[in-house]
Amino acid sequence: MTRRLVLPLAASALLAIAALPGPAAAQDMPAPDARAPDTRLAATELTLSGTGTVHAAPDRLTATLFAESAAATAAAAQGRVNALVRQAMDAAHAAGGVTTVTEGYSVQHDDSAKPPQWVARQTIRLAGADGTALLDLVGRLQARGLGLSGLDWSLSPDRRQDLTRQAESEALKDVRRRADSAAATLGLKIGTLRRVALGDRTMPRPMPMMMMAARAAVAPSAPAEEQDVTASATATFLLHP
């Protein structure tokens, strides 16, 4: 005996409709070649460098002096040099606001002298922010027998750091101006900033002054001229249409 599976009429109709192709559903699935292009592929990478420079008067004066003595014996020459150095250090400490450094102590026998003699020498560096006071001190030390080998104006570390920050800001502005100009010329727009790097291109520029006579009667002169602090910046931008 054969058994038959009988479906209700409504269920049969639904199955028949589901089997038919659906034009509306087909229209909802776009063809692969109809998708919008990926705009990220159109980005152009632009790398530029810029510089910034600020000018400022130096705020630190360094005087390089030396004590030198010649005698028949090394002990006598050293004794005279040691006495001059002590006088210089005491005077610097009494003046206040002066940093002192002693260096370059040497004792040599001079066979070319007639008669031969021993020569002792030591270098002293005095530095301070008050140039007028330091120059007055240098003049008094010269009168006591010390020699002056150089006067150098420079920027103090704190002042140089502040000026470097200002120079870096100017360098970044320069990079941005160049990027805006390049983008406008290319007909593009600046998008993402990918990377940026800063650098200090300034080398300390000492300003040596003419050496005065060892026994100068007046304080030496050392006019302070402006110094430059320069920084660089490099940045990479993404440009878009």
Automatic annotation (TrEMBL):
<dbReference type="Pfam" id="PF04402">
    <property type="entry name" value="SIMPL"/>
</dbReference>
<protein>
    <submittedName>
        <fullName>SIMPL domain-containing protein</fullName>
    </submittedName>
</protein>
<dbReference type="InterPro" id="IPR052022">
    <property type="entry name" value="26kDa_periplasmic_antigen"/>
</dbReference>
<feature type="signal peptide">
    <location>
        <begin position="1"/>
        <end position="26"/>
    </location>
</feature>
<dbReference type="GO" id="GO:0006974">
    <property type="term" value="P:DNA damage response"/>
</dbReference>
<keyword id="KW-0732">Signal</keyword>
<dbReference type="InterPro" id="IPR007497">
    <property type="entry name" value="SIMPL/DUF541"/>
</dbReference>
